[in-house]
Amino acid sequence: MKLSPKHVLTGLALLGALVIFYLKTNHIVFAEHKRFDDDIHRLRQVDASLNQDVLKSPFHLIEDYDRFPEEINALQKTTEELGGAIPSFTPPAGRGLIQQKVNELSQLLSQKEELLERFKSQNAVLNNSLRYLPVSGTELIEATAGDDQGRELKAILNEVMRQVLVYSLRTDDESAQEIHVSLSKLDEWRSRHRDDAQGAALASLAGHVKSIVQHKPRVEALMEQLVSIPVDQCLEEMQGVYDEQFARAMRRADLYRVGLYLLCGFLVVGIGYTIFALDAANTHLERRVAGRTSDLSRKNEELRLEIAERQRAEKLLAENEQRLRLILESEPECVKLVDADGILLEMNPAGLRMVEASHFGEVLGQSVYGIVAPDYHPVFRALNEAVFQGESRIAEYEIIGLKGTRRWMQTHACPLRDTAGKIFAQLAVTRDVTESRRVEAELAYERDLLRTLLENSPDQIYFKDRDSRFLKCSNALAGRFQVTHGDDLVGRCDFDYFTDEHARPAFEDEQEIIRTGRAMVGKVEKEIWKDSDGHKVTWVLTTKVPLQDKTGEIIGTFGISKDITAIKEAENKLEAVHKELLHTSRQAGMAEVATSVLHNVGNVLNSVNVSCAVISEKIGKSRIANVTKVAELLIQHADDVPAFFASDPVGQKLPHFLTKLAQRLSTEQAVVLDEVRLLAKNIEHIREIVAMQQSYANVAGVQEALPVQELVEDALHMNGAALARHGVKVIREYAAAPPVSVDKHKVLQILVNLMRNAKHALTDGGREDKQILVSIRRRDDHVAVSISDNGIGIAPENMTRIFAHGFTTKRGGHGFGLHSGVLAAREMGGRLAAHSDGPGRGATFTLELPINPPVTATPLPSKNRH
Amino acid sequence: MKPILILILILVATSGKTSRLWAVPPPVGGQPAAKTHEPIKPIPFQTNLDSRKVALGRMLFQESKLSHDNTVSCASCHDLSQAGTDHRVHSFGIHQTEGTINAPTVFNSAGNFKQFWDGRAATLEEQIDGPIQAPGEMGSTWDEVIGKLRATPVYNAPFKAIYPNGIQRRNIKDAIAQFERSLITPNARFDKFLRGDDTALTTEEKEGYRKFKSYGCTSCHQGVNVGGNMFETLGAMADYFADRGGPTPADNGRFNVTGREDDRYVFKVPSLRNVARTAPYLHDGSAKTLEEAVTVMGRYQLGERLSPQDVDQIVKFLKTLTGEYEGKPL
Asked: What is the mean pLDDT of residues A22-51?
């Protein structure tokens, strides 16, 4: 057994493959993966805290802007790094996809930075005025004289300040309108009083009020836009793209690992075999030398005997040969004659083709051992020996043709005897079985691969028949179902392990795949385990594809599920923490609002006190006592009243005195009445401020189960005054409905907005019998609250646009209410729909709220909205 | 034995010195409760910088070879002994060219969110490109600067020691920026007040601060730098430029960067740290005194003619914002 170049080459090739496989297995750099993954997470965190800071700023929970540049810089810097830190093992296509997302992100961030700068500037102007207004207002009130004119001014100023406070809490057109009315009152007062110093101060105050009215909606809109920029969504998508690339790289590395193991195994076997073969070859050689020596002497003896014999046999032989040749020529398989030493005696044309000889002369008298692959010499030798001992045998071996092609041969060999019955040759019929062997080997290899995959893959892999019963499963799946081997699951189905809630849709998905032949990729599935009373819930990411047989007919499905329960739980936790933070910041903001509300109640109380003092002073100094005096005079002259009036000098003046007194008294009454009216108005202000405070102070909160009727009544209450003022009749149709699990603040925000829209539609419609129908109905799994008006209605072409951001038909409207309403409803797992029969025919808006909120509310890019 | 002793003594002495330089100890005398809910935050005492870069940056900051005709250095307009400015309305570059906008102080500039009045540079490093290449300032090019510095023996060793690739544009900028980051002025009287020392301010100054807040000044002038972290329109409540007249291209402010109409007359809100030492004021250097500057701000940002008493008290408060550099009052 010599070490031929072929052996060396094979060895080198194997070693090379070994090294390449090893490198491929190790090409995932986990440090890079971790860094990239961490970067994405950090970006999401910073973005969330930036959004929170933006939302906190109107409540003065943040007094300085230092953290904004820090956060936006961190976002931009990390994004820039992200582009250069795409892990090296990501394939070029995936790299492109991720880079695309990074570019998208950095664009979003520059948008965000620009908006942030505008928000900071506008918010500063707004805060400037909000801070300074109470200072200048209080100064003006203190400096105003206590006369009637002064009191009028004070009342106007108090009114304006109250309205501004209300406006800063509830920014709407109506409040703005009220402020404008008060401002024109102020202008009018100013035009009546020419006092330069005071006039300038009043002008400055009016300027600040206007600035607040102008900037507040802008700041809110900017804030809204700012937190709506889908940075988080973009990051989430990027994460998705990257995760897929990472998983792909992992799968590839796993494949190479399997390859590596196989190769190692092959090498060990090869080395073992080589050692064995060397030993065998030695022994054989010795035996052959001894055999040859005795053969030689025997053959000499035989030769002599044979010569006589041969002549006799020759004739017969010629005939046999003639026949044999005919068979040989026409046989499609290789027919050959080989002597005991393997020397080729005869070969038909088919055989010549197999050994790649152009004519018989090329191989005649050659040893077949030159053609049989060295590895198979022992096989062929054994075959030949057996045949020469009179046996028929079948053997398989490899040959190397004269032109170097390797082929697998299957030989059926039998002894060929001469006339004397002596075996002189091996007659062999040989078939080329290269192709069938290759196919068989490939099949075996693929079976091995599949088995390795199914036994070792951490993912759940399964093949199902057309009835969704398991045909073959990975051990990972078996482990999940608490059996040891995937084969134990054969014949079972999802319904055996999961509740219908998961098993049914999964079954339907599979049927759909079988029907359409379309794969289902990357679906997140929630699994509820049957024997756990619904307590055990797991999440998987599943991809299913049709399973086809050779003819392309779909015979079932094939799927891979990855357990993502841990990821899902982490996500839910993050979401919960996020909500908690929002809630806390909102509550804190409310406390601040309460302080300023109380401050303003105090201001109005001042006016109440002034009014009371004026009334008691007026009543104390009243001329009512004079009436008593007149009565006494009349009683004194009761016996002769006509004479008293006619002749008594006092009596003569009495009618004139009475007239004067009556005038005086009615003036007094008017003043007191005015004062009482002012008083009542001020008390009403206080009530409104307090009521509003109550409605706002507790509304912020997490989702809680709330009776729908109460929510609707609260909303009606908040709009009550406005509806009454415009003569709108409210009809209530409440059906019994279970409590809904919602964020009270959001629902109120939507309902108040819908009612206000209805009121606008009614006033714009201008009909006499203005009416709003508020109904509550239960439908399956949700409660529907409808608000119908008989106002101007909605034109069909506007029906699809009313929910879009920026669309409005109201003068001075922002087109934001319905848009944010839809988003808020969707966030709670509900929905907001509109219906109208056309212009002039009223409109109905329906808010649907879920009785049981979905476990995963549709995540929105703007989920940080307060 | 003796040399080692001396060495240890030197080490102790120098380390003591550095700690005095870079880490001024907080005021002694109990642990007063710091005021945390104020819109203004104190400047931290410590910076975490590479002292070799700071030293190299200090040399470069004074280096007039950065300019084309070797006459102007960074320190020419940002004189550290003059609170980091030159007290001129407009500074002068090479060939006595007059600038177009007031040069702000370099102290605490690291705390500003962007650089230049119009915020066109995002970082200190980026800012350096501006004056070096501006024809009317240093009028040089980076090739020229690098060539000159490489020919100056004193720079080769320190550059090589810090940066493996020696004198490069990036490294020059890095060293200067690091030095600028060391130019902070902690321990102002107002910072002591913020850290809980109620005796640090007089009643008048506290009243000035109260007015500063309630008149809305802290809407913009807030944070560690008392400004320097946002943009705002000059003339939010009244038209400053119409009253002043004589418009210049520099008056357009951020509009010159973004081209957005909304950004016309918008400027970076300047830091008020050490403001008493950095006259004249505003981007056009038109206010010669703090009183004037406060009056103008009241007039155009608040829409109010502030009383002399208000102005006086607010100015008194602003004077408490003067901090210390290297342990000495600025």
From this structure: 86
Digit-coded pLDDT (tens) for A848-858: 888 875 444 33
Contacts of residue A124 in chain B, CB cutoff 8 Å?
219-220, 230, 232
Chain A contact for B301 (CB, 8 A cutoff): yes
pLDDT in tens, A320-348: 777 767 776 777 788 888 888 888 888 88
**For residue B224, which residues of chain A lie inside 8 Å, CB to CB?**
64, 66
Whether A331-443 and A457-563 share one fold: the answer is: yes
CA atoms within 13 A on the CB side of A63: 17
* Active-site annotation holds for B137: yes
Structure tokens at A513: 């795949």
Question: CA B321 to CA B188: how far, in whole Å?
Answer: 5
- In CATH terms, A703-850 corresponds, of 3.40.1550.10, 3.30.565.10, 1.10.3720.10, 1.20.1440.230, to 3.30.565.10
What is the mean predicted confidence (pLDDT) over A99-108? 93
For A124, which residue in chain B has the nearest alpha carbon? B219
User: A66, A204, A209, A216: which to substitute to probe chain B, counting the most B Cβ within 10 Å?
Assistant: A66
Q: Is A591 an interface residue toward B (CB < 8 Å)? A: no
Largest CA-CA distance found in chain A, in angstroms, rounded:
202
Q: Containing H/E element for A320?
A: helix A231-330
The Cα B301–Cα B266 span in angstroms is: 12
Q: By the CB < 8 Å criterion, does A59 face chain B?
A: no
Hey, are the CB atoms on A127 and B216 less than 8 Å from each other? yes
The pLDDT, as a whole number, for residue A93 is: 86
What confidence tier does B19 reach under pLDDT thresholds 50, 70, 90? very low
CATH class of the A331-443 domain in this structure: alpha beta
Q: Is B90 annotated in some ligand binding site?
A: no
| Protein fold of A457-563 | Beta-Lactamase (3.30.450)
Q: What is the DSSP letter of A136?
A: H
Tell me the percentage of chain A whose pLDDT exceeds 90: 10
On the question of pLDDT at A667 being above 80, the answer is yes
Among A144-158, B148-162, B248-262, B306-320, the minimum mean pLDDT is found in: A144-158
Q: Which of B37, B109, B113 to mutate: most A Cβ within 10 Å?
A: B113
Q: Residue B299 — very low, low, confident or very high, per pLDDT cuts 50/70/90? A: very high
Report whether pLDDT(B324) > 90: yes
Nearest chain A residue (CA) to B303: A204
CA-nearest of B305, B227, B233 to B269 is B227
Cross-chain residue pair B236–A204, CB shorter than 8 Å: no
A777: β partners: A784
Q: Does B38 touch chain A (CB under 8 A)?
A: yes
CATH number, domain A8-238: 1.20.58.920
Containing A423, the helix (H) or strand (E) segment is strand A423-432
- The yes-or-no verdict on residue A410 having pLDDT over 80 is yes
Of B137, B180, B207, B232, catalytic: B137
Query: CA neighbours within 13 Å on the CB side: how many for A302?
Result: 7
Interchain contact, B219 vs A211, CB within 8 Å: no
